[in-house]
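Structure in, sequence out. Go:
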């Protein structure tokens, strides 16, 4: 019996899985700096207004709407070399990404407010550009490591494991980049609870960011060395209007647009929680040393679920287990809000809810990239779209929109309560402002996860049965392409 094309371009090794995980570990090391630290660094150290920070992310996303598709098209049209079509970009852009990560955390407070704002806008947009240059080919890499959907599901799990470990150093830095506030006589300034008030230290933050950036370089190179491109990927034709044609095909693809929006919302919820918690644990709970625990409690279930996520996804359907998981998370955050109405707002109760929410979101966290790969396979079969890098560029842009949504959701509540980084060094927030801060911390995740459930369960069309049919259709398409080549 003739061996199928899919079986010939599969058979990944554990080395491939670990190497692929290292790629997202490296990406999340530096990306975590922008999601967990940068917002507070801007407002508390550089004393840039909350509104300016929010506008910065919007400006960056406008530029990304232009930059990301162009870069995706460049990668699709570039000929493959001895070290592959996508892997080589990891070693080319590892150092630029690290440098851009460090530049954002230089303490330029000695400059005027105008120049401080210009500097942070410039470095943040620069980081976004070079991050795109390495993240798009990395995302596309899964399509050429293997053509088997079950193996891609396994790669998605390992990628998510890598991102879990990659996000932790930034959260660790968020917990330990503070020093006690002192008055002119060197005495510690105490809060109403008798504990010393703390402020973010720019030197600790910069050193931590530099160490994290160096680690990212190491893991990008390990990803390059330990992965193998098995699927032959031909360069896209260099024809006028090709990018527009691909984008239009993606826009009319219900599976691709649905999974892109779902990924955007999930990232927005994740980033809102990690970014907002730096304010919540600093001002509401006055427990700066516990800042990283919500992430630990959220991702702890991942360490367990990762052993059977692929098997459950293959048996019950990736769409099915992901959708009901986020519904569980929505219920727990809604419960926290209800309890707050009765004056119950305890830090340990909040952390327990984070743990339960983490159980619910573990599946989509681990299988998110497998869902994206399914949608890209659908586009290949239904519309003949073979431009993986352009597809991932669009998908990456949608995830960046999630970052913008998260930034808005973080900063709008801060604007509502009148948060001012400079003023808060001498004055605290009012009890009403603190209560409002807490309410937003639980209401927003509850709403996002509920919306995510509705989209995944009732709009996204690639359920278990359709995925099985898609594998058969893809085998036929790949055979025809291989014969033509």
């Amino acid at each position: 019996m003739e061996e199928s094309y899919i079986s010939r371009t599969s058979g990944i090794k554990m080395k491939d899985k670990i190497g692929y995980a290292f790629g997202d570990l490296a990406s999340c090391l530096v990306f975590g700096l922008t999601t967990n630290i940068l917002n507070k660094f801007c407002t508390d150290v550089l004393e840039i207004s909350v509104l300016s920070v929010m506008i910065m992310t919007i400006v960056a996303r406008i530029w990304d709407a232009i930059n990301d598709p162009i870069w995706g098209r460049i990668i699709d049209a570039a000929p493959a070399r001895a070290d592959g079509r996508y892997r080589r970009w990891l070693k080319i852009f590892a150092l630029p990404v690290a440098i851009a990560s460090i530049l954002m955390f230089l303490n330029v407070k000695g400059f005027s407010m105008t120049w401080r704002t210009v500097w942070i806008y410039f470095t943040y947009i620069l980081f976004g550009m070079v991050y795109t240059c390495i993240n798009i080919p990395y995302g596309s890499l899964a399509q050429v490591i293997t053509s088997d959907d079950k193996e891609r599901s396994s790669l998605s799990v390992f990628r998510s494991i890598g991102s879990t470990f990659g996000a932790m150093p930034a959260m660790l830095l968020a917990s330990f980049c503070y020093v006690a506030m002192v008055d002119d006589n060197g005495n510690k300034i105490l809060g109403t609870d008798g504990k010393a008030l703390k402020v973010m230290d720019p030197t600790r933050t910069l050193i931590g960011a530099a160490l994290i950036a160096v680690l990212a370089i190491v893991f990008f190179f390990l990803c390059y060395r330990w992965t193998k491109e098995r699927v032959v990927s031909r360069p896209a034709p260099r024809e006028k209007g090709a990018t527009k044609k691909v984008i239009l095909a993606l826009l009319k693809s219900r599976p691709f647009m649905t999974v892109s929006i779902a990924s955007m919302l999930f990232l927005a919820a994740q980033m809102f929680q990690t970014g907002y918690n730096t304010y919540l644990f600093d001002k509401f709970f006055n427990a700066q040393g516990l800042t990283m625990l919500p992430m630990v409690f959220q991702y702890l279930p991942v360490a367990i679920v990762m052993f059977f996520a692929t098997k459950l996804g293959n048996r019950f359907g990736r769409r099915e287990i992901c959708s009901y998981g986020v519904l569980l998370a929505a219920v727990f955050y809604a419960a926290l809000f209800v309890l707050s109405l009765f004056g119950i707002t305890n830090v340990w109760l909040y952390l327990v809810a984070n743990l339960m929410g983490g159980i619910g979101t573990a599946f989509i966290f681990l299988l998110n990239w497998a869902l994206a790969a399914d949608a890209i396979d659908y586009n290949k079969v239904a519309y003949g779209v073979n431009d993986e890098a352009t597809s991932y560029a669009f998908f990456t842009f949608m995830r960046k929109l999630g970052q913008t949504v998260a930034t808005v959701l973080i900063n709008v509540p801060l604007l509502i309560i009148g948060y001012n980084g400079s003023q808060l060094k001498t004055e605290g927030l009012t009890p009403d402002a603190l209560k409002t801060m807490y309410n937003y911390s639980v209401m927003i995740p509850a709403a996002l996860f509920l919306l995510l459930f509705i989209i995944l369960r009732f709009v996204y069309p690639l359920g278990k049965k359709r995925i099985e049919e898609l594998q058969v259709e893809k085998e036929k398409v790949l055979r025809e392409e291989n014969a033509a080549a």
